[in-house]
Design goal:
Helix content is about 40%, strand content about 10%. The chain is mostly helical and about 150 residues long.
């Protein structure tokens, strides 16, 4: 079954999912945020077939989430580097991870949590705040058209 394109949708959530709504794409971004840059690193980490990985990497490059750069070791290889647009997905991945940690049982003996690298302390739960600092929940927001 062919996937319907949401690129022309009015809703920014739908348009975002059109670009990164595939689990492989988000896992590639996760690994890139962890410092992976080469095709072989992504493939080893994800265990995904070469054709699917190639397709997802091409899409992420075409969407400006990753860019190809010369290899840092001076070899003839090219590496995938996150752009600012790609790095901005960090908060999305943290939110997904925190949701999963709270609502999904991990496999036995494999509970993970994200910690502050400098202090080794777990992160606080992400919060959405109004401009005046109030914490907002789902009932406190609406999607509205802007001029």
């Amino acid at each position: 079954m062919r996937r319907k394109s949401l690129a022309g949708a009015v809703c920014p959530i739908a348009r975002s999912l059109d670009v990164i709504g595939d689990w492989w794409s988000l896992l590639i971004v996760r690994d890139a945020l962890r410092g992976m840059r080469r095709f072989s690193e992504f493939q080893k980490s994800l265990g995904v077939s070469k054709n699917i990985l190639t397709q997802r990497l091409r899409t992420l490059v075409a969407q400006g989430i990753l860019e190809l750069a010369p290899a840092t070791d001076g070899s003839a290889y090219r590496e995938y580097v996150l752009t600012a647009k790609g790095r901005d997905l960090f908060h999305v991945l943290v939110a997904l991870g925190q949701w999963g940690q709270e609502h999904l049982d991990p496999p036995a003996g494999s509970r993970l949590t994200m910690v502050d690298r400098a202090r080794g302390e777990p992160l606080r739960r992400l919060e959405l705040r109004a401009r005046d600092g109030r914490v907002l929940g789902p009932g406190d927001t609406i999607m509205t058209k802007i001029a």
